[in-house]
Write a structure and sequence with these properties.
With about 150 residues, the chain is mainly alpha-helical. It contains seven helices and two strands, in the order αααββαααα. The longest helix is centred in the first third of the chain and has 15 residues. The chain is elongated and about 60 Å long. The two termini are about 25 Å apart.
Length: about 150
């Protein structure tokens, strides 16, 4: 399992918008320059985030992109779902038809479902506010496991 550039760039852009939330809409070029992200690719990602209701656009001279909700209300999981799609460690953990004829009696399927559920719960338990205020990774663990 590896996070693609779509997910990484989206998280970076959302963290930037969270840090600048009080300053209003941010131009695409500013977001792209700080993160050294390609403008067109970033625009596509922000479009996906807008469709998911996580980002809002403002037109005009002072326009740009801004968070559609408070940073404390947007989770890392929702950003990744909007850009990467739902996280499933295996096809057999996805909703719908079983991926193979043995899925009902497979001894690995419950483990894969357990891991998928726990990773998703973790990602949906970390907000953008958590991400921009945590100085070290172990601070996430302290907040989540207290």
């Amino acid at each position: 399992m590896k996070l693609s550039t779509r997910g990484k760039y989206a998280l970076y852009a959302m963290a930037y918008l969270a840090q600048k939330a009080a300053e209003g809409p941010q131009p695409l070029r500013a977001i792209a320059q700080v993160g050294k992200l390609p403008d067109q690719y970033l625009e596509q990602l922000l479009g996906s985030l807008r469709k998911a209701g996580l980002v809002a656009t403002v037109r005009g001279a002072q326009g740009g992109y801004q968070l559609a909700h408070e940073p404390s209300e947007i989770t890392v999981g929702s950003v990744l779902d909007a850009t990467e799609g739902p996280l499933n460690l295996s096809d057999c953990t996805a909703e719908g038809d079983p991926c193979c004829p043995y899925s009902e009696n497979c001894c690995t399927r419950p483990l894969l479902e357990y891991l998928t559920d726990n990773i998703n719960n973790l990602l949906h338990g970390i907000t953008l506010q958590d991400m921009i205020t945590a100085k070290e990774m172990n601070e996430f663990g302290q907040d989540l496991h207290g």
